Each structure stands twice: as C-alpha cells, then as structure tokens.
Amino acid sequence: MSAELDALYQEIILDHYKNPHHAGLREPYEAEVHHVNPTCGDEVTLRVHLDGDRVVDVSYDALGCSISQASASVMTDLVIGRRVEEALAVHEEFLALMQGKGTVEPDEDVLEDGIAFAGVAKFPARVKCALLGWMAWKDATSQVLRNDNPQETA
Amino acid sequence: MSAELDALYQEIILDHYKNPHHAGLREPYEAEVHHVNPTCGDEVTLRVHLDGDRVVDVSYDALGCSISQASASVMTDLVIGRRVEEALAVHEEFLALMQGKGTVEPDEDVLEDGIAFAGVAKFPARVKCALLGWMAWKDATSQVLRNDNPQETA
Amino acid sequence: MTIPGLLPELEVIRKDFPILERTVAGGQPLVYLDSANTSQKPQCVIDSMVDHLERHNANISRAMHALGAEATEAFEGARDRVAAFVKAPSRDEVVFTKNASEALNLVANTLAWAKGPLAVGEGDEIVITEMEHHSNIVPWQLLAERTGATLRWFGLTDDGRLDLSGVDDLITERTKVVSLTWVSNMLGTINPVADIAARAREVGALVVVDASQAAPQLPVDVVASGADFVAFTGHKVVGPTGIGVLWGRREVLEALPPFLGGGEMIATVSMERSTWAGIPHKFEAGTPPIVEAVGLGAAVDYLDAVGMEAIHAHEQAITGYALEGLLSVPGLTVLGPQDAASRGGAVAFELAGVHPHDVAQVLDTRGIAVRAGHHCAKPAHARFGVQSSTRMSSYLYTTPAEIDALVEGLHYTRSYFKVG
Amino acid sequence: MTIPGLLPELEVIRKDFPILERTVAGGQPLVYLDSANTSQKPQCVIDSMVDHLERHNANISRAMHALGAEATEAFEGARDRVAAFVKAPSRDEVVFTKNASEALNLVANTLAWAKGPLAVGEGDEIVITEMEHHSNIVPWQLLAERTGATLRWFGLTDDGRLDLSGVDDLITERTKVVSLTWVSNMLGTINPVADIAARAREVGALVVVDASQAAPQLPVDVVASGADFVAFTGHKVVGPTGIGVLWGRREVLEALPPFLGGGEMIATVSMERSTWAGIPHKFEAGTPPIVEAVGLGAAVDYLDAVGMEAIHAHEQAITGYALEGLLSVPGLTVLGPQDAASRGGAVAFELAGVHPHDVAQVLDTRGIAVRAGHHCAKPAHARFGVQSSTRMSSYLYTTPAEIDALVEGLHYTRSYFKVG
Ligand SMILES: Cc1ncc(COP(=O)(O)O)c(C=O)c1O
Ligand SMILES: Cc1ncc(COP(=O)(O)O)c(C=O)c1O
Fold first, then answer.
1. Which of B49, B126, D219, D382 has the most crowded Cβ, counting Cβ within 10 A?
2. How far is CA C227 from CA A34, A69, A79, C127, C195, in A?
3. Is D286 within 8 Å of C233 when comparing Cβ atoms?
4. Element (H or E) spanning D32, and its range?
5. CA–CA distance from A148 to each of A143, B27, C188, C375, D102 (Å)?
6. pLDDT (tens digit, 9 = 90+) per residue, B51-103?
C-alpha cells in the first residue's frame, strides 16, 4: 500500500507542499478570483498580473490538501514569465494528463515538476484537487483577456 | 373466480345499484356535503333533513361504482326515520364490519340489507367505496348537530 | 399470433421480467396491463441495485474513499446514460429528481422565485392543456395563484386531440410558459410538441414537455422536441421508483434560482449567505437517489439494447390489436384517437352499464390488471363527460394473448353484470 | 476486547451486512467508519426490496388490482412501522419525502406560502444554530430572503456545545421558527432539544428538529422531543437512499399549504381550481418512493429488533473507545465534546501537519473509509477556525478492532508525512 501511496505522493509534491513557490497575495494584479472545491472545501484566492501577452506574476492564498497546494505551486513555476498563449498550452497539457485516468504519458519538457502529478490521475477524487489552482488561474486570466482595457482593480 | 365475485357482488347489492332507494336531491335540508374518493374519483353530494333528533330525509346524487351506489342506497334505508343516535349506532356497526377485514360477523337485525356488504370487507380497495355515502351522511349530520340553531340553507 | 411490428423475441424479453411469472387470483397467470401506471422491472435492473447495495454502497461526491469513488462513479455514470438516452447535448443538463412530478414542480417553483427575464407575474400567462396529468396542472395553478399570472389551456377536440384552432389566441406575447404532455396518459394522444414549441419560441415563452408517457415508448431527442425542459419518471421506463429526470437547456437551468437548499447544491455556505454549485448539482439538494440512479441507468441501457424504435413499433402493434379487440366488445367506447398510429399504448374506455371500478374488479379476479378511475386526469375525463374510465396499457412485454384475455374478460364482465 | 455496552452479538450483526465482507485496496478488509455519511444495509432490507420488485411491484392507491393492493399495503405498512419507530401519535403525521433535506425544505417552503398565523414575513425571526448541516441552513436562508424575515442563530461554546447563554435574547416574541439539529453530524454534540423546544413554545414559535443523526442512534419519541416537526433520512438508518421522513404535528401539517402539486396530493382537480387530499397525502405529490418505503420499513424493523437502547449503548461504548484511541495520537485534536456520554458517534478531528484529505487518502490505502472535508457543516468548521476535518463515524456494526485499525492508520499517516 505504501507503493500506491508513493505513486500519488511523489517527493516533488511533498516538497512543493511544504515549501510552496510564489505563495501569498501580491500587487499589482488585473484580476482576482476565488475558487472552491465544494466537495472538500479546498479554497484558493488567486491573482494574475499580465503585461501585454506576458504572465508577469501569479500570486495566491490557498487552503487545501497537499495535492492542491503543491499543484498551485508547480503551476506558478510553469506559467510565470511565459507568454499567455504558451501558458495556456501548458494548462491544456496538464488538464489532459489529469483527465487521462492514468493512460497519458506526461512530457517532462513541457510539464517539468508537473509530471509528478501523473499518479494523481489514477485517483479520481483527487483530480479536482490538482486542478483547483489551474482552473482559478485560467479563470483569472480569461477575465483579464476579456477586458479590452485592463484596469487595476486593487 | 365467479364464487369470489359473487361474495362481493351479492344480489342485494346489484339490486340496490340498479334501483337505488331515495336517490336524487330534495328539499328541505339543513346541511349538504360533497365527498369524493380521490383514488377513483367517485363522488356523492348528500343532504340531510333532521327534525329534532329524528332523521327525516337523506337525499343524494351519487356518481360511482356498484358498491358505492348500493351502499348509499342501503344507508338511506337504514337511517331515514331513525333517531340520530340510533342511526349513528348503525353507522358504527357498518364501519366495524367494513374495517374488520372479513372477520366481523354482521348482525342482520341491525344492518338489514347492509349485511350484503360483508364480502366487501375482504377487498381493501373497495372498502372506501362502501363507506363513501356513510361518511358523507355522518359529516352532514355532524354539521347540523354542531349548529345550535339549525337554519335552512337552501 | 403474428402481427407486424411485434418484438421478435417477445418470449425472451418476458423472461427478463421476474414478476411476469407470478400467478395471481388463485393460480392464474398475471396479465399486467397497467404499465402506463408503472412498468415492471427486468432482472438486470434489480440485480444492478442489489449489487450496488451489497458491494458499493456509500454516499457520493463527499466520500473520498474507495467505496465513495465507486458509488460516485455509478451515480454519475447513470447520469451519462440518461443523457445519452434522451440525446441531451450535455450531461450537466440532466437533473435527478424524485419523480416526474417533482421535476415539473421544480420548474414551476423556481419560476415563482425567478428574477429578471424569467420572472412570472401579473399579466403573464401560463398555457397548459386540458389533457394534462394532475402533476402538470396543479404546479401551474399554484404558480399562477402565487404570482398573479393567469392560467390558460388548450381544449380538446371530440376525438381527443389538442384543439389547435385557437393557438394564436392562446400563445401570445403574454405567454411565459407553455407546458404540455407529449403523450396523454389517458387518451393516448401523441401531441405535436415540436410544432407547439416552435410557436412558443416565437413569442419567447419557455416550453416544458411532460414526457412521462413518451420516454417509455418513443425515441426521445430533447433538442429535436424543441423544449426547454423535458421531464419523465424512472418507474415508467422499467426503472425503480424514487427517481425522476428533468432535462433542461443549460442557459435556462443556469438562470433559474435554486429549488431546494442544502448539502450538495452549494458552492460555499456561511451563516450570512451561501452560493450555489453549478448545474446539475444546484438542483440536487441532499443525498440524491443513488441506488435508484444505478437502477435507472441499467433500465435505460436495457431499453436502448432492445431499441426504442423497436419498442415503439411493438407498442403500436399491440395498441392496434387492442383497439380492434376492444371495439369488438358491444357497448364499449374508446376515449381518444381510434387509430394506433397517432397514439401511445394507453387505451381508456367505457363499458356501457358497468362502472370502471366494477370492470377492473371482475378483470382482477381473472388475473388481469388494468386501472380504473380518473388516472390523475380529471379535467380530461370531465371534457368527455365521464367521471372515470377503465384503462389498459401495454409495454414491451405485452403479448397479443394478453389482449385476448382482456377482451374475453370484458365479454365476461358484461355477462356477469347482465348488460346486453 | 470487551467494553461494557457493546452489542453482545456483534459478529452475528456484522453477518447481516453483506458489504462488510468486502475487501478493498488490494485485498484488505473494509473498515467502514463513514456511517454518519451513509449507513450500510442489512440483507433483510435488500431482500425486502428485491421481493417487492420481483413479486409485488405496482403503483399504489390508484391501482385496484391484486398487485396494486399488495403494493399499497406494503407502502402504507411501512408508514405504520416508521410511525411506531418514532412513536408518532398518528400514522397520518408521517410524510415520506426523498431525503432529510427535502423534509426540511418542505417546512421552510410551505411556510413561505402560508397565510394566517403561520405566515412568515418582515419583522419575524427564524432561529437556527451554528452547528447545522447545510440542509438545515440554506432552506432557512432562502425563506428569510424570500419573506423578508431575519435569520438568527445560536453560537457555539469552545467545547462544541450550543451557547445557550443568550437564549432569551435569541428566542423572543418575534421568533416564528426554531430549527436545530438533535445530534451534530460534525461535532457529535447531542443538543437539549426538549429544553429549547419548551422555550420556543412559550413564545409560540414552531420547532423543527433535524434528527438525521439522532434517528440512527437514539430512541426517538417525537412527542417527548417537544418538536412540531422532526426530519430524518432513510439511508442513515440502514434503509435505502431516495426516502426521507418528515413527522409533523397534525394541526400544523393541516394548517400548512401544499408543497409540491400533482397526482396523489389532490382531492379534486378542475382546470380552474383544485382541492387537497388530507395529510399525509397532501404533501406527497406524484408516485412516492414505494420500494424505498418497503426498504425503510424493513430497516426500522431491523433497528427495533436489535433495540435502539442497545444501539445507543453500543455507539457510546465505541465512541468512548475511539475518543481514547484518537487522543493517544500525537498532534490529534478532537473537535466537539470530549466525553462520549454527551455525544453521538461521529468524531471529527484534526491531525497537525496533515491535511484531512491526505489523512483520508492514507487511511483509504489501508481499507479504512472515513470522511474528509467540511461534512456539509462549513459554518461549524469556520467557528473553530478550521476549513476541514477528518471524521470517523461508527454504527451498530462497528467493532473495537476497527477503531484500533484507525488509530494505527493515523500513526502510520504521521510517519508517512514525516510529522513528529
Ligand atoms: C445533521 C444532518 N442533517 C441533514 C442531513 C441531510 O440528509 P440527506 O442528505 O439525506 O438529505 C444530514 C446528512 O447528510 C445530516 O447529517
Ligand atoms: C403524463 C404523466 N405525467 C406525470 C406523471 C407523474 O409521474 P410521477 O407520479 O412518477 O411523478 C405521470 C404518471 O403518473 C404521467 O402519466
């Protein structure tokens, strides 16, 4: 049973959980969202700061399990500094991995630390945890993009 | 199966069904009620005319199956002309017969043609039919009695 | 007996339904002709429920353990199957209720509280028909009474169809909702729902279709029906009691306020205020009918395996045969359309001189189960000047021999009551 | 292991529950500690449902044939058994709903439409508590929002009991309804419902008791509870999903307007207006959960046969043993009262350094089923400054050995996550 657990709780995940990257809420930002997982109550408040088509910062305050926290941390590593379009492509790749029920082979070149979540896909109840931060990021980003003249809302 | 049916559809019942006694709505009356059997939709409109403690007339307009029609007819035979108290006692006796699931031995001296309904008690779905007219009569009678100064409502 | 359209493997199908092997009334075989009231259940439906209760029972969503995951998958899997059964564009548009009545009340009730374009109020009109089941009348009476809106309805023609002559007077700019049955449970009439829906769309009214009698018998395509909502009930599609289905168009479901409040339908709750989950969960407060969904999933799979087209053909063949047999009984009058092609498999009739309750009683002593009464359609009975009727209704397991037994039983009834 | 109060024939009882023989997580025996979420079902309940579906299935009341009479008797017989289970003065006061959530919504919803003395409006107050399940919060939030009434609530003490210090400020002449849980599904607290009901009666308020967690564990006497309404749910009393119970005092049920409209709840229907059936049918629109009532009847019979006093003693013994074991785990904090005597069998806890979802996951790989999350009690979690917790909950089939497995699993969890 430990092997099964280890497949889920990769060292990388536990590391990110204990030491989350880019945690905390920062300014400036163009959109802030609050997402919850109604099932278990995990919550994330997340802000994005774009400059043109570039993701300059993603800051967040997350309450949740190791998987959801680590996933948010990994997500920020993967999207900050990228062009929005590229970041969205990474998001797609991560989504495909999570929804693949364990059949999708992760691409380390794209997902980097995100490949540690491959095992999560086999635990349907945890997929929502792993996606919480990503969904919040995507939502916030779309809000900024929808807004033709992005304004500071702080 | 014909024997079973015959236990239910006694000749007396079919006679009353074809030639109901005291049918039609008449004046004078002190109370009129309308009862329905919500299950099958059988309906009866019934009027009572009391003079002091005596049941002078019971008139009715009934739509329903053989059992409910015959039962109303037999009921009028049994209550008209009686003192209210006596009539209510007959009602109790009939009720006991109907709710006895076929275990109660009917008393012909009290129930007269009403004993023909003994077989109905074995058909739970038909008990409501047999009681429809009786319940309406009891309801109407109580209305008159509740009214300290009975007035013509016609 | 070979009638074109009958299911070819009828005897095999009957073997799937354990109750059909029962005897009643002192050893006589059961002739079950009350399927419009509730259908019988195939073994595979019963087995799926037993397997769930014996091996996978847990609460759903909220439970994260192995059993919880299995139960959730079984429940949500059933939603997928039901969505496929009615060709719903999205599984999220399939809301599980407790029966068709609740599904219809859900719509009427949330409209009573809706704000904005969906709000119903004074001056607005709700249109139903005179052939509705009480479950598609009373919710709208309550809505009208509570909001000050006016209830109007389509009358019926003498042959038991909707009287569409005044449609343009009835469905107008004032109309907010048109709710009608697809197939009448009393007259058998199949209504032109898509045409009426098209007219309702023109004036911007919502269209609610009561498919309680249609879903068991016809291939249903919710989008093609033109409706905004389609309701039906589990126990009439060879599924269990305790579950019904409301399909609704996403935009409308999303715009409606919640129905019942509680667990599962929330996004977050504080003492001061709460926010709602997305559809379909917004409308599913509390522990849903889990084992019932499992049974319903197996039921629609069963129907799909037999084939809804084939079932429809079978119903039509049996109904045609039944109409012929019934009309051979002297003094018998069939209510509703007389041709099988334009009707469903419920046939209500009168037998001169014998009250329906007595007809049903005599048939019952011969093992034949039919329904007598108003069939929860009092206004339709009133329209035809009758207080009640006898109704036979067939389903995919009904045989011509059962119809013969009915017809014979009706002849016997007449002789027993010495009519004619 | 002998602990005073345990059910003497525990191994025999376990044999009644087929699912307990299942293995999970690669061959490990199932340790089911999630009974407050939903209970497992004994074979006799499952068999009663199968027998009904295979032999007696028909619609009720409306069907007059042999099967219809059998189904009606089975359904109404279940009402008699449930009435006896909660000591209802009259079977007519027992309304079948789809779950406890619907039962609570039924009361809140009909009060929104009530006229006369029961009407709720501006200036009126509704009192609940901070430890309610979402299903006893959201319906009252909706009622308050829709009528302009004000929602108020009892706060909680640090040890997880109702803070009754301000009761006279909270329950006043303005109070129309007091609704509270008998046993908390998160904190385990058993509330003094009769005392609070007495106070509410003084000011003429209606009292609604959510007995969803009480009915499975305690002998319930609805009259002694002092309540006007008592709600519980079938699936937590070893019955099936798809059925709940609302008991209500006759006068109040009779005075309330109808809830859902449709078949079965009417006296008569015309297109212009309808009248209602008497209670309980007035509140049971549409085909009711028939096979579910059959299962529930068998379920309460089963519990009565084991004996509710004995079950209560068992729960207390197991809970005491569990509290002891849990508190031996370093870093573990139990939420709610710490003594078994004043609480029910659900124990929510925190484990320092490990998120509840992760605790549940590790336990699941050992075959142990617990619940993690907010347990539909977000406000109670917020009160204790936690977002979620892990909850173990026992029932009449729970053994001390299962508690040992849990405690061992928690030690393992700590070591796996390298805390302490
Ligand atoms: C205290 C309490 N109230 C209400 C409910 C709601 O019950 P149901 O989900 O069956 O409607 C539950 C269980 O989920 C509960 O524990
Ligand atoms: C046309 C129609 N509508 C609605 C219903 C109500 O279904 P249920 O009783 O399952 O809610 C029925 C069946 O009773 C029906 O035949």
1. B126
2. 35, 44, 44, 14, 10
3. yes
4. strand D31-32
5. 10, 83, 57, 60, 45
6. 999 999 999 999 999 999 999 999 999 999 999 999 999 999 999 999 998 88
- In order of their start, the domains of chain D are 10-41+307-416 (3.90.1150.10), 46-305 (3.40.640.10)
Model pLDDT for residues A68-119, shown as the tens digit of each residue: 999 999 999 999 999 999 999 999 999 999 999 888 999 999 999 999 999 9
Give the integer Cα–Cα distance in Å for B75 and B138: 11
Rounded to whole angstroms, the Cα distance separating D151 from C135 reads: 33
pTM, full prediction: 0.96
Q: Does the structure show a pLDDT above 50 at D251?
A: yes
Residue range C127-148: mean pLDDT, rounded? 98
Quote the distance between the C-alpha of residue C285 and its chain's center.
23
What are the tokens at A144? Answer: 């900024």
What CATH fold (topology level) applies to the domain A2-146?
A: Sufe protein. Chain: A (3.90.1010)
- Kindly state the DSSP code that residue D199 receives in the 8-state scheme: H
Q: Is C44 a catalytic residue?
A: no
User: Residue C158 above 70 pLDDT?
Assistant: yes
Q: Is C165 exposed, middle or buried (0-12, 13-18, 19+ CB in 10 A)?
A: exposed
pLDDT in tens, B4-54: 899 999 999 999 999 999 999 999 999 999 999 887 888 999 999 999 999
**What is the number of the ligand closest to the CA of D184?**
1
Q: Which of C110, C150, C127, C103 is CA-nearest to residue C196?
A: C127
State the closest ligand 1 atom to the C-alpha of D210, by its place in the atom list counted from 1. Answer: 3
Extract the tokens encoding C221.
Answer: 């395509």
Question: What is the pLDDT confidence band of residue A150, given thresholds at 50, 70 and 90?
Answer: very low
Q: How far apart are CA C124 and CA C145, in angstroms?
A: 12
Question: Which tens digits make up the pLDDT trace of C241-257?
Answer: 999 999 999 999 999 99
**Option in D365, D372, D381 nearest A5 (CB):** D365
Identify which of D28, D355, D374 has the shortest CB distance to residue A65. Answer: D355
Give per-residue pLDDT as tens, D27-37: 999 999 999 99
**pLDDT digit string (tens) for D106-118?**
999 999 999 999 9
| Binding-site residues, ligand 2, Cβ < 6 A | C 99-101, 133, 135-136, 181, 185, 210, 212-213, 233, 235, 244, 376; D 263, 286-287
How many contiguous H segments (helices) and E segments (strands) does chain C have? 13, 17
- Is the torsion defined by CA of B111, B112, B113, B117 positive or negative? positive
CB atoms within 10 A of CB A109: 7
Helix (H, G, I), strand (E, B) or coil at C22: coil
Residue C84 main-chain phi, psi, to 5 deg: -65, -40
Q: What pLDDT score does B1 carry?
A: 56
**Which residue type is seen at A24?**
G
Average pLDDT over residues D360-365: 96
Q: Quick one: which atom of ligand 2 is closest to the CA of C233?
A: 10
Whether C39 and A17 have beta carbons less than 8 Å apart is answered as no
C123 Rama sector, left if φ>0, alpha if ψ -120 to 50, beta otherwise: left
Q: Residue D290 Cα, ligand 2 centroid: separation in angstroms? A: 14
Residue D221's contacts (CB-CB under 8 Å, 6 or more residues apart) are: D86, D87
- On the 0-12 / 13-18 / 19+ scale of CB atoms within 10 A, C378 is buried
- ω into C257 cis (within 30 of 0): no
Compute the nearest-CA separation of D286 from chain C (Å): 5
Residues of C with CB under 8 A from a CB of B: 25-26, 28, 355-358, 361-362, 365-366, 372-374, 378, 381, 387-388, 416-417
Among C368, C393, C395, C407, residue whose Cα is nearest residue C187: C393
Asked if the model's pLDDT at residue D283 lies above 60, the reply is: yes
Taking the CB of residue D81, how many other CB atoms lie within 10 A of it? 18
Alpha-carbon span D297 to D300, nearest angstrom: 5
